[in-house]
Amino acid sequence: MASHMPVNHSLRPLYRGLALLTGLFVLAFGVLGYLESQGDPLFAAGDARALGLRTNPAFAYASLAAGVLVLLATLVGHNLDRLVNTWIGAAFLIVGTAMLALMGTEHNVLNFTLATCIASYAIGSILLTAGMYARVAKRR
């Protein structure tokens, strides 16, 4: 499947920029979520909000880790960003779907709402697209 991914796509700088902005958003959400939900239990189903989305400490920690990974991979480049963006984008899509299915139950451990699921889908789609179009040819 990797052979079908475009190499040196002309819009690669745009996709890298979108991945960078998305990583900054996820990192900012994680930092603000951490500050807002300090003192709450790890998987609390409280009313802590960051950037208009509900959060809890577990979701804030996961967002911090994902944001840092995306930012570092985007800054390093060299096809590392392609790999990281593809996997983290897919993870955001999978987690968004899982939390959508579990939203009305006690198993909603990340305190998701419908708005959080939509944001997770948008972030996942941007990162997955950036990962698909960020491949560069190796220099010889």
Care to describe what's here?
- There is one protein chain.
- This protein has one domain.
- It is built from 4 helices and 2 strands; from the N terminus they run αββααα.
- It has helices at residues 12-36, 57-76, 80-102, 114-132; strands at residues 49-50, 53-54.
- The protein has a two-stranded antiparallel sheet.
- The model has no long low-confidence stretch (mean pLDDT 90).
- Taking pLDDT < 50 over at least 5 consecutive residues as the criterion, the unreliable ranges are none
**Could you tell me the mean pLDDT?**
90
Determine the strand fraction and express it as a percent band: under 5%
Report the end-to-end length measured between terminal Cα atoms: 23 Å
Quickly count the helices.
4
**Element pattern in H and E:** HEEHHH
Name the helicity range. 55-70%
| Strand runs, count | 2
Shape: elongated
Give the neighbour order of strands across the main sheet: 1-2
Largest sheet: 2 strands, antiparallel
Rounded Rg: 16 Å
Number of domains: 1
Helix-strand category? mainly alpha
Structural descriptors:
mainly alpha, two-stranded antiparallel sheet, 140 residues, 62% helix
Summed up:
With 140 residues, the chain is an all-alpha fold. It is built from 4 helices and 2 strands; from the N terminus they run αββααα.
Topology record:
Elements: H1 12-36, E1 49-50, E2 53-54, H2 57-76, H3 80-102, H4 114-132
